[in-house]
Amino acid sequence: MTQDLIALRHALHRHPDISGDEGNTAHMVATALRSTPADLLVTDLGGHGVAAVYDSGQPGPTVMFRAELDALPIAEASGVAHASQRPGMAHLCGHDGHMAILMGLAGTRPARGRLVLLFQPAEETGAGARAVLADPTFAALRPDFAFALHNMPGLPLGAVAVAAGPASCASVGWRIAVRGREAHAAFPETGQSPAPVLARLVQHLASLPVSTATICHLNMGAPAFGIAPGQAVAHVTLRAASDTGLEALEHDLRNWIADNTGGLTLDITRHDHFNATLNDPEAAAHVEAARDELRIEKAAFNFPMRPSEDFGAFSAQAKCALFFLGAGEAHPALHDPAYDFPDALIAPGLAMFRAILARLTG
After folding, report:
1. Measured between alpha carbons, how far is 102 from 124 in angstroms, rounded to an integer?
2. Which domains does the chain possess?
3. Measured between alpha carbons, how far is 257 from 43 in angstroms, rounded to an integer?
4. Torsion angles phi and psi, residue 156, rounded to 5
5. What is the pTM assigned to this prediction?
């Protein structure tokens, strides 16, 4: 089975789809699931999401395992034989590997309760989990427990890290548009330049704790020498360990900006909002027990993970746990153009999911 799953991962890797445009990937997944005895197969869930249900017919919990469908708008430079065939797009976060692991459970009917395999769209933008939850079709799939894994470069290959409480940070992207008035470069005082406001903003954000605010894009004025700028745009990612911490950060930054506009007009819009992922103690305990049963190495990890994961949205409806599967201490980082999911993780990832399912439904 492992070789079949590796072949599936390589096929998915060659044909990546970015967030919100995962139709081809969803079709590949749904086609593979149709060859299994699913009691229910749902497509177009929250966009291009796919879910398969395997029902024991006996009373018991509904256990959901989730993988992500989407890739990234980054050109790949891994050099592997199965590299992306779509220019400017690649699976550089390992979602192809996560899908292959989940597909290893296809056809599994628990002794009691139900198994739901969810292949979720648009994780990279933070919109996918909320879209799935908002889809009326999801009501029939609602789980009692939900689990997901994410591979993690920097941890020993195959080792598992999990803990109750915060597992991944909350984050949001701010687009800050500053508008003033252009002027002749010889007479800048006759206009209103956004440069002083932008300079103060950059200095203020740099004074915040590391990773709290990351400047991702700056643009000001026209690419010319005779025009003093009249407008600017900044893209900033804000990050906190909890949803309430992110709310407080946004509140404080709005107040700071209001006091430092220098009479210019500002417009702030929010994008790519991710909830923090909070691991339920009971769900996390099942992951820990599965790791111990399988005698998998326990990885030391500094929780929460700085990158955001929209899996946290499911915690409003189920007992959730997100755990991390080591991709190797020297492995290229997530979102690095040289990254490729290690095939060696498929077997331990699948074993972890099977052991968790057995604990809850066996």
Report:
1. 18
2. 2-167+276-361 (3.40.630.10), 170-273 (3.30.70.360)
3. 44
4. -55, 140
5. 0.93
